């Protein structure tokens, strides 16, 4: 009686063997990245100072399926396949006849989906002979994930953590240190860019855009170093498609052939792309008609309030220009916002899918997000990451609408991470002191 | 090829249906608890002010197998069976031919094994009509677990958290608050006992014994309340035997018929008893010859340096007297000790097994424990709880001895919890500032 299952836990032999590349399946091709100086479409050589060739090839690939190297699958086996749960207790708490499932990525070693990309990124750098990785991190999930992956493949790892997060989340830098990485607050005194930003904005709480500029500067000046990005780029979203592929297999275990709604949080787009792209393929091939809903914070609403245009990925303008929904390269989210997902842009592949009408988007204020997170935690036991709370809030809106309409849809929620290290934000919410940004 | 598996993940239908009670299998019967005032063996009625009858019956039961109620198994399904991993990467890091397995309880909703007992404790209180639970917590794992279970069954929950932990671990009280429970630092102003202790020891960092006294006073004066204990008592160890039963099934999946060594950390004894009692049964029935090693902190060495005698379970002397290895009811562990497992005594069932030679014990200083934990985290990705680090350290000693002797034993480690909320202790260790207590 599969419908009685609480969780579909697949064996290690069910870990996907390939990543799914959505590019060849798009009805129209996405716009190419442009060289920041010339404005011409980027060629692979433009990226070799920052990335190893294995990742550059993935970034530009037109192949639908890209094989996952054995060495990466070995590390995935430490936590994958991740579980898909039927949320019986949440359904009961809501009094709904909707069937709600959630994919939980928080049981990975670092507590989020980010390890799905940090491991292959470290691997392709290792086989290219690089010995050091630099990166940025906002909430700290990506930094922790890259620290873990760098340790696995014996690489050094230096992390620029957005200052407000570095100061407010000491547990995150401790987690990176356990894996042997070094984190500093950004903007820092360690880079030219950082020193300039500190002069210009002495009181800044930092931003992902600033931290990206610092990490890129550092990688560009060290020939043994690569830069790693935790979201936005095509190859990052590619790696995350293991999530959605597993969900499809697990829904079959539950004997659930069709989903009505898929909710996932969206900051840079790696979680959303990873869980939804395999479902977009289902839609494009006519097997399903899933409504995919990107749930972004009202404090950084790139899809719902941004402009679809070429913009830089960082603050200073060191990256290629990407065609994406953006709030502008110098956007700094409200420092009182604790809800995560603070990036100014949205992954070009997600932006393109949104522009083509292949997914929809909503924005959620943080109090609604945390209210949903507390309800979820009390029903299911799992305390979700701040980011994941946006997806849960989106799903709850749908459940309430369905109840009013007398409908019982099948809903999947992407719970991208654990909220254990976001507990101070929960305290702020429970005490009534969280600003409703 | 089962030997290639990284983790044995059983289906929900493999969750044990019964708890295993070791009492009838002991070669000699354990000494009974005594009434604190009369010194006579306790009768069930002596406990009805504090506990519901369902738990009192378990406490005194002579039945080998006690059925797990359906409502409890439903909640266990949220995270059980927990995974048993083959530690390939740790083996490789150690350069050993030993085969190392670890049972990971840290993926439970609250991050430790404690939920295995909090859920049935809340359940039996619920069906007895109690509406409120009081308890103590040290590191915070038990408090979080009871908060979760109380929420599941709709009970109020008040938690006295050892002061040093309450002040140093704000994430833990936040976690309890997410589940709707209230935590206060102990000794507190809320109880007569607490007020007296604060007068007598104004600078005390608190102890589990003091917090137990406060929680008992509060439960005794409220007819709707019960007291819950997270370790030590027979029924708590009984509930935890789901761990060891699952390990036996999972070793069969790995086609590993016999274990040479089992290492588990020991504070009050619930984790050690839970994972080891099913193995003691294997030994007593001649199926295996497993050497079971309790790993306790040098800072609270009840088995290795305590005395086997009748003592109180709390500081003030409100509990029955228990025959156990103890450092004395007024023992207060060194406040600089961050390694967990700070209780003055040891569960009577574990003490009895130790006295009868059915298990052995070692003590570990906290720097050795954290060194082992960091090595483990860097190999396996999982950051273990402070407590679990003691078991890992014990296993590493054995691996090194085996390497010198040219042996390749089969070793199981009980990793009782996640260290995500212990990260400040890791920082202290990595910075070289952890006192070696």
Question: How is this structure best described in words?
Answer:
The structure is a homodimer of 437-residue chains. Chain A has 437 residues and is α/β, with parallel strands linked by helices. The first copy, chain A, has a domain at 7-15 and 69-111 and 235-430: 3-Layer(aba) Sandwich (Rossmann fold). Chain A has 16 helices and 15 strands. In chain A, the strands form four sheets. Chain A has a seven-stranded mixed sheet with strand order 1-4-5-15-10-11-14, sandwiched between helices. A four-stranded parallel sheet of chain A has the order 8-7-6-9, with helices on both faces. A two-stranded antiparallel ribbon of chain A has the order 2-3. The N and C termini of chain A lie far apart (44 Å). Chain A binds chain B through residues 5-7, 9, 11-12, 77-79, 85, 89, 107-111, 115, 148, 151-152, 170-171, 174-175, 177-180, 374, 377-378, 380-383, 418, 420-421, 423-424, 426-427, 430, and chain B through 5-7, 9, 11-12, 77-79, 85, 89, 107-111, 115, 148, 151-152, 170-171, 174-175, 177-180, 374, 377-378, 380-383, 418, 420-421, 423-424, 426-427, 430.
